[in-house]
Amino acid sequence: MKGISEVIAAATKKPESYVSVCVNDNASVIFGGTDAPCALGNMCSIGAISMESNGEVQKGVTELLEPFGLDAGRIYINFFDVPRANVGWKKATFAG
């Protein structure tokens, strides 16, 4: 998880203190019609979602997971650019 956090921080140019990673290991998942090992991810960010950074995250995460037997074609990440008003932290949203 730490490696994934570092990849996201580097790709988005955000401090790692703003990154959180959650892994649900051994989940029952069907992907592409098979239950072979896979990884499904969702990444939400305020303003750091772009074709370039998304590609860097996808590449970095894939390179971290392949040694664990995951095929690159079975690692799927959705990227979401979230408005500041829709993210809460420290009793407020990032919009104020």
Task: Draw up the topology in text.
Blueprint: H1 2-12, E1 39-45, H2 51-65, E2 75-81, E3 88-89, E4 92-93
Parallel strand pairs: 1-2
Antiparallel strand pairs: 3-4
Helix pairs in contact: 1-2
How would you describe what is shown here?
The chain is 27% helix and 19% strand. It has 96 residues and is an alpha+beta fold. The longest helix has 15 residues, at 51-65. The model has no long low-confidence stretch (mean pLDDT 96). α1 (2-12) packs antiparallel against α2 (51-65).
Short descriptors:
96 residues; 2 helices; two-stranded parallel ribbon; alpha+beta; 19% strand
Describe the structure concisely:
The protein contains 2 helices and 4 strands, in the order H-E-H-E-E-E. By secondary structure, it is α+β, with helices and mostly antiparallel strands. The mean pLDDT is 96.
Structural Rg: 15 Å
What is the strand content? 15-25%
- What class, by secondary structure content? alpha+beta
The major pleated sheet works out as: 2 strands, parallel
Sequence of secondary-structure elements? HEHEEE
* Percent range of helical residues: 25-40%
Whole-number mean pLDDT: 96
What is the overall number of helices? Answer: 2
Counting DSSP E segments of at least 2 residues, the number of strands comes to 4
- As residue ranges, the low-confidence spans are none
The general outline is globular
